[in-house]
Amino acid sequence: MKFILSFTGIQNSLHKNIGTKIKMIVQEKKPQELLEDRIFTISNLLSISRVFLLPFFITFTKTYMASSEKTEFLVYAVLTCLLAVLTDYLDGFLARLLHQESVLGRYLDPICDKIVTIGGLLVIVHYFRFPLWILIAYIIREILGIWLGSFLYLKRGIQGKPNWWGKFGVGLVALTVLWYMCIPLIEFQIPGESILKHPEISGYILVLILCTGIFAYSKRYWDIVFHPEKIQIDPADKKTRKKYELV
């Protein structure tokens, strides 16, 4: 027997169901349904622009590493990284400000984040000796995140909600990349031993954040993925309805 995870009819009949918990039953979605919402919005274009900044970041870094005398290219690379961070903040802010929030945008933003963060980490692995095993752990975590987000949408009709651990992780990746990129400048400005010369610290903190985020997501979505028949919804509980928001 196939379960249907849906809130269809719930919102139209809240007055009949106040105080009554309703079993969550599964509504599958098709990928093309994502394109039924607004596509060409300022926030979506900002998200995509982050990906197009990545080749510039790689080129500037490669040029600097080929000739360390060309310090201006290191500055360009750092500024490109900062610009990517700025677009990450602005896309969500403008989506809310201009009322351009969409299901597609909520998926596009984290996907662009994943592409850019993995690309940034690859650069510092190749040029600045960032621990490869941390990059591998990060990629595995992102693959799991893509699988979970796709499964929740396509098989459960629910949009996975980002948690603060995930957002903090993206910010920490940006900080890590910037820290490693600035090491040549730090070594020039600060002689002798300094904690500023050990950017790998942020990498180890990143691993801790990744593990915590995986635990938080598992706790939140385990029953939805494996036991949707156990979930009960109280239509009067706004927090619960938001948590299991239908997309």
List the helices and strands and how they pair.
Elements: H1 14-17, E1 22-23, H2 42-66, H3 71-97, H4 103-128, H5 132-156, H6 164-181, H7 183-189, H8 200-226, E2 232-233, H9 238-243
Antiparallel strand pairs: 1-2
Helix pairs in contact: 2-3, 2-4, 3-4, 3-6, 4-5, 4-6, 5-8, 6-8
Describe the protein in words:
The protein is an all-alpha fold and 247 residues long. It has a single domain (38-225), classed as Up-down Bundle (Four Helix Bundle (Hemerythrin (Met), subunit A)), CATH 1.20.120. It has helices spanning 14-17, 42-66, 71-97, 103-128, 132-156, 164-181, 183-189, 200-226, 238-243, and strands spanning 22-23, 232-233. Strands 1-2 form a two-stranded antiparallel sheet. Helix 2 (42-66) packs parallel to helix 4, helix 3 runs antiparallel to helix 4 and helix 3 (71-97) packs antiparallel against helix 6. The chain is globular. The model is unreliable at 1-19 (pLDDT under 50). It holds the Pfam family CDP-OH_P_transf. Keywords: Lipid biosynthesis, Lipid metabolism, Membrane, Phospholipid biosynthesis, Phospholipid metabolism, Transferase, Transmembrane, Transmembrane helix.
Provide the number of structural domains.
1
Shape: globular
Spans of at least 5 consecutive residues with low confidence: 1-19
Strand content is: under 5%
CATH architecture descriptor text: Up-down Bundle
Determine and state the CATH class.
Answer: Mainly Alpha
How is the biggest beta sheet arranged?
A: 2 strands, antiparallel
CATH topology name: Four Helix Bundle (Hemerythrin (Met), subunit A)
Instruction: Please tell me the overall pLDDT.
Output: 80
* Strand order in the largest sheet: 1-2
Keywords: Lipid biosynthesis, Lipid metabolism, Membrane, Phospholipid biosynthesis, Phospholipid metabolism, Transferase, Transmembrane, Transmembrane helix
Subcellular location: Membrane
Family: Belongs to the CDP-alcohol phosphatidyltransferase class-I family.
Protein name: Putative CDP-diacylglycerol--glycerol-3-phosphate 3-phosphatidyltransferase
